[in-house]
Every structure is written in C-alpha cells, then in structure tokens.
Amino acid sequence: MGTYLLKKTANTFLTLFGVVNVIFFLFNVLPGDPARMMLGQNEDEQQLALVQKKYGFDQPIFTQYLYYLNDLSPLSFHKNDPEHYTSLSSANYSSKTLLALEKGSIVLKYPFLRRSFAKQGKKVTQILKETLPNTFILATASIAIALFLGLFLGLLSALNKDKRIDRFIMVFSTLGMSLPSFFTAIIFAWLFGFVWHKYTGLEMSGSLYELDDFGEANRLQLKNLILPAVVLGIRPLAVISQLMRNSLLEVYNCEYIKTARAKGLGSQKILFNHAFKNALSPVVTAISGWFASMLAGAVFVEYVFGWNGLGKEIVNALNSLDLPVIMGAVLLISTIFVILNIFADLVYKYLNPKIKLI
User: Fold this and answer.
1) Contact 126, 313 (CB under 8 A)
2) Which of 56, 141, 160, 169 would staple 85 via disulfide (CB 3.0–4.6 Å)?
3) Of the candidates 316, 302, 319, 311, the residue with the CA atom closest to the CA atom of residue 206
4) For each of the chain's 358 residues, which pLDDT tens digit applies?
5) HSE (CB half, 13 Å, CA atoms) of 286?
6) What is the DSSP track for 53-113?
7) CATH superfamily of 124-351
8) Which of the 8 DSSP states describes residue 306?
C-alpha cells in the first residue's frame, strides 16, 4: 500500500505539472494584453507600464512561465525588490521564510493562483473558495440522487431481465444519457419553476444563499438545490443503472454464484452477500469519474439556474477573458480529478481484496 501511494503521489505531481504547462501556454498565446484586461477602460500608458512590470507581462514568455511555476510551487524564491513581481508581499502570500539570501529569500507558502483581472485584483484562491463549496454541494446532491436511484433501478432491472419493467428502465436510461444537460435544465426550469410554480413552489433560478427582502443577510434556500441537482444527476443516474444491471447479470453467471445456489443459499443472501458487492466495481469507476466531471460539467446547469458555483464563475471568466480565474479553476478541477481516481482505486481494493494495486 505504501509503495502504491508513493507511486500515485509521484504520478499525481507529473500529471499536474503537465496540466500546468498546457493551461499556461494555451492561455498565454491568446491575443490581447493582460494588463489592458486588468485595467479595463481606465488604462493609460503609465499605468499599463506599471502593471506590466508588477506582474511580469513585459518579460519574455519563458520568464513568465518560470514566474508562474514560482507562484504555484510551495517552495518559492522571492527577490527583495519591493516593486518586482516576485517580491514577497503579505497581500499575495501567507508564507514562512526558510532561508534569507542576499538578493531574496526562499519561502514556504500555499500555491498562489494570482489575482483576477476583472474583479479589482481579487485573489483567485478567494474566488474559488467562495464558489467551490456551492458546486461541491450541488455535485454531491446530484451524485447521491444518481447513486441511490441508479443502483435501485439497475438492481430492479437485473432481477426482472427481459420483462416489461426491464425494458422501461433501459429506455429511460438511454433517453437520460442522450439528453444534453443544458437542454434538460431549460425544460425543467420552465416546467417546474414557471408553468407548475404554484404547485411545486420552486423558482426558475436561485442559489443556495439569497439576500433577504431587506438586503441585509443571506438566507439558506435549500429548495433552489432541487432542480439543478436533479438535472445534473440524470445522466449519471442513467449510466449507473445500466452499469449496475449489466454488472449484476455478469456476476450472476460466475461460478461462485452457481456454487452458492447449489449449497442452498437463498436468493436474497446470494444477492446481498455475494453478487451486489462484486458488481459495484464498474459503478465505483463511474461515480469517481462523474463526480469530478460534475465540478466542470455543471457550467451550463449552474448558468441556467443562476447557481453561484464554480461553473457559473468559469462562464463569467470566459466572457471577460479573466485568464487567472480560468487557469486556476482548470488546475483545481484537474487536482480533484486525480485525487478522486486514487480514492476510487482504494475503494476497489476494499470491495475486492484480491485486486493488486499497481
């Protein structure tokens, strides 16, 4: 286990290093001056020069790349020049000096994702902290709905193979996988939030917290979670139900199930003591992948329902070309995806101890 975790940790850093390279060079070859994006309509030549020097935009692309790695690295070097981009500043970092040098210092710090171009220099980490919890809650609720209903429908379908209920569930699953999330979101918002509003009490749009009538405090609005969670959970629900059905039918054909039947074990004991647990492996794969993709794929659902999460923030950042926010969000989602893959491997090992982790 220790060797596996060590290898996975090394692979994680290599993967994230590749992601950092891709997002940096991809977004830094886009046309436009980042300094002008930051200043908007208030720029003049003197301000542009100051911003370019402060953030290193006047440097060659490779030098900017090294600055970016320096920002992201927990172990960083900072010059003593107070006007230099790589200077240590309490406004930028929460850090601890490890080694003081003549021309700078080596510090230990949290990764610095830079500052937003469009939000008066607000830290990207702060923006992500404000939006990620809402997306996490939405993704968790969606995957919980998909997991509970998907396992139930898959189990029901497998136990009634080729019967009418089985065919109905398969048609529902196929339809659920084929419908685009943004189309489903629009239909659900219109039907349940507008046409049937007086029966459902649901709104077409709204986030987890909303200002009260006096505009003084945020109120928790759990009802606003229902529609986006259901819409976001439809596709994984369809996938999980089909995976569970096919996996369970495959397990039922295994020799140890036939042996259990020959020993006289009841159908219920065979299902829950032997078949169900071994049929979960492909479902675990689907859940880990879907949960990570939900953090990125919730973009359209959050935008349609006005849910103040990471997806909506990414759309706003794309509209305003707020590159630091886009790059920070992509890096965060990639990190979560890698961590969830490791977690899925550990769950495999728990479900089937015979699996050898490589």
Assistant:
1) no
2) 56
3) 302
4) 677 778 888 888 888 899 899 888 887 776 666 666 666 656 677 777 777 776 677 788 888 888 888 888 888 877 766 555 544 444 455 667 777 777 777 888 888 888 887 787 788 999 999 888 888 899 889 989 988 999 999 889 988 888 999 999 999 888 888 888 888 889 999 999 999 999 998 988 888 877 666 555 677 888 899 999 999 989 889 988 988 888 888 888 777 777 777 777 777 777 777 677 778 777 877 776 677 667 666 778 888 898 888 888 888 888 887 888 989 988 988 888 888 777 777 776 776 666 666 6
5) 23
6) HHHTTTS-HHHHHHHHHHHH-SEEEEES-TTSTTS--TTT--EEEEEE-SSEEEEEE----
7) MetI-like (1.10.3720.10)
8) T
Q: How many CA atoms lie within 13 A of 296 on its CB side?
A: 16
Q: How far apart are CA 177 and CA 167, in angstroms?
A: 16
Spatial neighbors of 229 by CB under 8 A, at least 6 apart, are: 138, 141, 142, 145
Amino acid letter for position 54: K
Domain ranges of the chain: 124-351
First-to-last alpha carbon distance for the chain, in angstroms, is 9
Tokens of 172: 């529902």
Amino acid found at 224: N
